[in-house]
Amino acid sequence: MISSFNITSDDRQIAIYAGMVTSAFAFAEFSTGVVWGRLSDKIGRKPVLLSGLAGTGLSMLIFGFAPNLPVALLGRALGGLLNGCAGRNIGVLQTTVAEMVTVKEHQPRAYAIMPFVWCLGSIIGPALGGALAQPCESYPSLFARNTIFDRFPFLLPNLVCAVILAVGVTIGILFLEETHEEKKHRRDMGLEAGRWILKQFKRAEREFEIFDKAGYASLEVAETLLEDEQPPGYRTHDGSPRHPSSRAASPSVPHPQSHSRGVAAKREPRGVQKAFTKQVIVNIVGYGILA
Questions:
Q1: What is the mean pLDDT of residues 144-170?
Q2: Distance, CA of 20 to chain centre
Q3: Rounded to an integer, what distance in angstroms lies between the CA atom of residue 12 and that of residue 23?
Q4: Cα dist from 76 to 68, 104, 182, 242, 276, whole Å
Q5: pTM of this prediction?
Q6: Using alpha carbons only, how large is the chain's radius of gyration in Å?
Q7: Three-class secondary structure of residue 255 per DSSP
Q8: Which residues contact 181 (CB under 8 A, 6 or more apart)?
């Protein structure tokens, strides 16, 4: 990307400029990491984490549209100021997990998965960026010349990452709960909207189950009527003659209460499932998106 700016033809100078772009992000997040950590104690963990994702997406868009080196430096520095990946979001995220998983025996399991997800993102991210960079040269049949992707050849990977971050921000707004002890009881309209969406899905699922049970009952009634229409000597299911007064045994239907108890017993979390609650998984996914 630095060589595409046509600043210099010297490879050593290009390496210096690339180091400047990398250090701009690191220096910016170093300068603001503690500030954002303290801010999370005042306004809550959730706003800080979500603003970090949004700041990362904004900086990636600026970096993808960068026509020269100063704009690229500005985009990376802005990413460090708004994101603070190693300083702010990781520290706040670890604090959030500690506040969610209050059982100390389960905390090592939650913390152990976070470096794994980070390393996985560090592997997939550069590979994805390299595959999507300069799409007009790599995929000429899909991306034509004289388009926006030809003018900004490094926009596509940053755009894809920005979309992924937008999805992460949306999930966080709808389903991430505040864990700060003093801020967790305030009203969260985003969380209320997420619960309403889940409620609609659950209601649709219950209606589908009721419709399925009603269809099964109608099928049983139809089979009974067909049995009544058979000749008296052949009213049977096994093909042998039978006395007209005898009736075929109807299939036993399990009692709904016992069925619901069995389903509840199967759905009861056990072992590791108790540690990885919904909120812990949401934080792990957010951690992976940051990686």
A1: 93
A2: 33
A3: 17
A4: 13, 38, 34, 85, 34
A5: 0.68
A6: 29
A7: coil
A8: 99
